[in-house]
Amino acid sequence: MSELLIEERRGGLVECEYVGHICGVSYDGEIAYQFGNPRHWTYLRSAAKPFQAIPAFRCNAPENAGFTPKEMAIMAASHRGEPFHFEAVESMMRKIGVTEDDLVCCASYPLNAKARDALAAQGLPPRRQYHNCSGKHAGLLALCKSEGYPLQGYEDPGHPAQKDILAALAALSEYPAEQIRLGIDGCGLPVFALPLDHLAKAYLKLARPELIADPLTRSAVERITRLMNEHYEMVAGTNMICSSLLMDDNIVAKGGAKGVYCFGLRKEKMAFALKVMDGSEDKWPMIVAAILEQIGYDRQETIERMYALCPKQFANGNGTIVGENRAVFRLRKQA
Q1: What are φ and ψ of residue 23, in 5° steps?
Q2: Residue 1: which pLDDT band, with cuts at 50, 70 and 90?
Q3: Confidence band (pLDDT; 50, 70, 90) for 261?
Q4: CB < 8 Å & 24+ apart, contacts of 237-241
Q5: Which of 33, 92, 145, 176 has the largest count of CB atoms under 10 Å?
Q6: Is 287 within 8 Å of 276 (Cβ atoms)?
């Protein structure tokens, strides 16, 4: 059953409540911390993107295509369509010789308000390259080009690229591929569902790739996660939680739509997966900050960046403090 994570208070009353589940696993893959149901099933949504990039990196497709490090990083991104994101995706597509029509993701405007408003002011239409998943799609087309897979139908679960992705996720999550539930994501690709503890295990391996037995997969993960940290601005964008967390080179993190968030900690040799059940994302930073505080995380600047994104006190449009956000959960440590 879901349990209360965050209270949002105004004028002394609880105005909103955010419930959900948290699972933290230790280096041996066992549940170390929990709140709510640590085995709650959830779709990964865009939290799957680092795993969706693994097959391309296994066969050196990004390097073969001549992608720059920033272009490689955006393969694991939910970018906000800022100009530097769009330029990276455009460059990737030129290098592999594909067009906008080859992308399965739909045309959209950028999620970044400034970038969106600038395009609207010029009367420019939505484009597929602006879609927050376009870097992932361009990376998959690079995989198809490199491996001789057909470009058409790369979104089909039976396509070789999708079979490669499912195999990689199954291996890292330690969950049988045939038992991973499939749906269709917002961008048109297959989306995967797993219990939170196995999702946390997968993120543990992103943070600690020495746990991965296969050398090609281990090398791919090492490169992907290094790029995510070194080019954190490509993975989400300005003032976004993923980019703010990835500024910390001890953390590998990625979120997905509808409230799922995951991160691995290198030095601490543990990883967490969480789900906010109403699907909201704006309280993620406070939940992550509270988790880090409760486990005694020693990089205070990372915690402060989280509270800058979701302050303990919030103001109205006049700048008057009108309420507070409060993390009310306490992680239960397993013996």
Answers
A1: -135, 130
A2: confident
A3: very high
A4: 237/79, 237/80, 237/81, 237/82, 237/85, 237/111, 237/112, 238/80, 238/82, 238/112, 239/309, 240/80, 241/281, 241/284, 241/285, 241/288, 241/306, 241/309
A5: 92
A6: yes
Instruction: Tell me how far apart the 2 most distant CA atoms of the chain are, in Å.
Output: 62
Q: Could you give the CA distance from residue 43 to residue 257 in angstroms, rounded to a whole number? A: 9
Q: Please give the angle made by the CA atoms of 171, 155 and 264, to the nearest 5 degrees.
A: 35
Name the token pair of 276.
């906010």
In which residue are the tokens 């408003």 written? 117
- Token pair for residue 35? 């709140």
User: φ, ψ for residue 17 (rounded to 5)?
Assistant: -130, 145
Considering Cα of 154, then 156, then 157, then 160, what sign does the dihedral take?
negative
**What gap in Å lies between CA 105 and CA 98, rounded to an integer?**
14
Domain count, the chain: 1
User: Domain residues for 272?
Assistant: 3-333
Mean pLDDT of the chain: 97
3-state secondary structure of 59: coil
User: Tell me, what amino acid is at 81?
Assistant: G
Q: Is there a contact between 292 and 302 (Cβ–Cβ < 8 Å)?
A: yes
- The reported pLDDT for the residue numbered 123 is 97
Structure tokens at 61: 């497709």
What's the pTM?
0.97
pLDDT of residue 285: 98
Write out the two tokens for 147. Answer: 């491996």
Report the C-alpha dihedral over residues 5, 10, 12, 15, rounded to 10 degrees.
Answer: -50
Length of the chain: 335
CATH of the domain at 89: 3.40.710
188-217 pLDDT, tens digit per residue, is 999 999 999 999 999 999 999 999 999 999
pLDDT range class, residue 334, cuts 50, 70, 90? confident
How far is the C-alpha of 48 from the C-alpha of 51, rounded, in Å? 5
Secondary structure of residue 75 in the 3-state scheme:
helix
d(CA 8, CA 87): 39
